[in-house]
Design brief:
Length: 77
């Protein structure tokens, strides 16, 4: 295993930051189209608090990512 130097660590941080930015932008974009308000997504709340659990949205994202990665793997071999 190689040692993680400052340049490699900096590159890793830049890549991680870019992934977070892209993920955040994707979540904002999908929420504008109502993606995170599907039937089966649970929202609980009271006067001063709210908890949102996107069960159906997570299952749908998992299925889509599974298909994408399966296709990538299929066409690589």
């Amino acid at each position: 295993m190689t040692e993680l130097g400052p340049q490699q660590f900096g590159r890793w941080l830049i890549i991680a930051g870019a992934v977070f930015i892209l993920t955040g932008a994707l979540v904002v974009l999908l929420s504008k189209f109502g993606f995170f308000r599907l039937p089966g997504d649970v929202e609980l709340g009271g006067k001063n608090w709210r908890v949102y659990i996107p069960i159906t949205s997570c299952i749908l994202i998992s299925i889509i990512l599974t298909i994408i990665f399966w296709l990538i793997n299929y066409f690589r071999h």
